[in-house]
Write a structure and sequence with these properties.
Blueprint: H1 3-12, H2 19-24, H3 37-45, H4 50-55, H5 61-76, H6 82-90, H7 92-101, H8 120-141, E1 143-147, E2 161-166, E3 219-223, E4 229-231, H9 239-254, H10 262-270, E5 273-275, E6 283-290, E7 295-299, E8 302-305, E9 308-309, E10 318-324, H11 331-336, H12 341-345, E11 351-356, H13 358-365, E12 370-375, E13 402-406, E14 413-415, H14 421-431, E15 436-439, E16 442-445, E17 448-449, E18 452-454, E19 459-463, H15 473-476, E20 479-480, E21 484-494, E22 513-514
Antiparallel strand pairs: 1-2, 2-21, 3-6, 3-21, 4-5, 6-19, 7-8, 7-13, 8-9, 10-11, 10-12, 14-18, 15-16, 16-17, 19-20, 21-22
Helix pairs in contact: 5-6, 6-7, 9-10
């Protein structure tokens, strides 16, 4: 059954657990089975205003309102303590029928309930719980605040930009791990490795309808696809790249004695390796370059979509090699061009490499002590071993010369053979949950020979605007639809980490702007 249909059925007929409560109020219990009307009657039982009932028709807010109605129902049975109310919210389908059936529990009409005076501690606890629940609903289903931690989207989004990400633009997802410590991502505060969530309760992927779909050139926040496995001691590095590097190292060291898998085993012996569910993988922000069904190519750094030149973002950067006449470039001059300290520190001011826009490169080229400013361009056939799909024989690609590559679309079918398999093996096995084996060049999917494969969901291609300094789809491949979190829409604060408050840490001209 479709998860949405199941959720709607459970939500619509949830008041059936109030069968004994309706009887206690001399109301025909069969009314619990009448969709929408059952909530109207329940609202009358707890004597709440009509606007409570109307709020049940607002998505996401209705979940919060049902929690409140459950608590109010528990109060009718004189359950005023926080523990009992928590049990009612966590296990309503058990606790509410128990209250109605048990001879020990006495029902008291709302109008006859005594006013309970709460102590200051209880007042604070109730206020905190209300705030946490309300903020969690907003964070999960409406929008969430993010910070830009790296320069991969320079100059569109800067390190130190604080932005709001809309969950409703593409439709909010149901959390895979609904039981988690609030307001943290995957690790408990003040700990290094302790998980902030439990995995014994795991929900299937479902996305509610949104205001639109992912479009080309949207700035998209998504769960990092390669983050399903993590080396905890090296969390800022890709696990699969760590393993590939280890395999190459052992292959070079051992020669003919090397066997595939030795490097991986060494990584697992040396470090703490863990797996993470989709919603607890690191959040990345990149620009969507290609949509499901597109064919992408990169030729001499220019992106082509279906054979047509793609739109280049304003402020797109590449690495440039700079050579001076021996006189170093003044750091002040580089700061005036809004080049970050992080980039300046690795730049030898007589000769070195800087990520620059075309305009900034032209400005540096006019400095009297600069002899040459040359854009870095990797040539065709110049294979980078960490570029997807990591296959030198069939795909000798690099960051500037890539593709053509088909971006999978749900329902589309591709041929499967030993040439195409490296492109789609991770989709088949990891993202879509099939078993995949190769025996004597015969591809087996779920134990059966397969010469084609039909995709179950949509996939996207993401790239950073700082093209030579972005860990994006060129390094780890496709982004599945169930990894999409939301759309970056608005920057509300921008802080320059290279400056102090007295030097003008706040970038006033970068605040209160929409993301383009």
């Amino acid at each position: 059954m479709d998860p949405l249909i199941l959720i709607l059925l459970v939500f619509t007929f949830f008041p059936v657990v109030l069968w004994p409560v309706f009887k206690e109020n001399n109301i025909n219990p069969l009314q619990t089975l009448i969709p929408f009307y059952n909530y109207f009657v329940w609202n009358k039982v707890i004597e709440k205003p009509f606007w409570w009932y109307m709020l049940l028709f607002f998505p996401f807010l209705n979940v919060f309102m049902v929690f409140l109605m459950i608590v109010e129902t528990a109060k009718c049975y004189q359950k005023y303590d926080l523990g009992s109310q928590a049990i009612a919210v966590i296990l309503p389908w058990i606790y509410l029928p128990y209250l109605g059936i048990s001879v020990k529990e006495k029902y008291l009409h709302p109008s006859k309930r005594p006013k309970i005076k709460k102590g200051p501690v209880r007042e604070w606890v109730d206020a905190i719980i209300f705030a946490v629940v309300a903020a969690s609903i907003i964070r999960i289903f409406l929008f969430e605040a993010y910070t830009i931690p790296t320069s991969s989207m320079e100059k569109s989004l800067l390190v130190g930009d604080y932005l709001f990400v809309s969950k409703v633009s593409y439709g909010p997802k149901i959390p895979n791990t609904p039981i988690a410590f609030p307001f943290v991502h995957h690790t408990m505060p003040f700990s290094t490795f302790t998980k902030s969530y439990v995995e014994w309760l795991s929900l299937p992927y479902y996305r509610f309808p949104g205001f639109g779909k992912v479009e080309r050139n949207d700035a998209v926040v998504f769960n990092y696809p390669s983050g399903d496995t993590v080396v905890l001691e090296r969390q800022n590095e890709d696990y699969y790249r760590i393993v590939r590097d280890a395999e190459r190292e052992y292959a070079n060291r051992m020669g003919a004695q090397y066997k595939p898998g030795i490097g991986r085993d060494a990584v697992w012996r040396t470090f703490t390796v863990t797996a993470r569910p989709v919603d607890k993988r690191e959040n990345y922000i990149k620009r969507c370059i290609a949509l499901p069904g597109d064919t992408l190519s990169i030729v001499d750094q220019q992106v082509y979509i279906n054979g047509v030149k793609g739109k280049n973002p304003k402020g797109m950067q590449y690495n440039y090699s700079i050579t001076t006449n021996g006189v170093p470039i003044a750091e002040r001059k580089l700061h005036e061009l809004r080049i970050s300290d992080e980039d300046i520190q690795i730049f030898y001011r007589n000769q070195g490499i800087l990520p620059l826009t075309e305009e900034t490169a032209a400005a540096i080229g006019k400095f009297p002590n600069v002899k040459e400013v040359r854009k870095t361009l990797y040539q065709s056939g110049e294979w980078e071993p960490n570029i997807f799909p990591f296959d030198h024989r069939h795909y000798p690609w690099n960051v500037d010369q890539f593709g053509p590559l088909y971006i999978p679309k749900a329902g589309a079918t591709v041929k499967l053979n030993m040439v195409t398999l490296p492109l789609y093996s991770r989709i088949i096995e990891i993202y879509e949950g099939n078993t995949l084996e190769v025996k004597d060049s015969v591809i087996l999917v779920n134990g059966k020979p397969a010469n084609k494969y039909t995709f179950q969901q949509n996939y996207y291609w993401m790239m950073g605007d700082n093209r030579h300094n972005s860990a994006d789809s060129r390094y780890w491949g496709f982004v599945p639809e169930d990894h999409i979190v939301g759309k970056a829409v608005f920057v509300w604060l921008s802080l320059d980490k290279d400056r102090t408050l007295t030097e003008g840490k706040i970038r006033w001209n970068k605040m209160f702007r929409f993301v383009k």
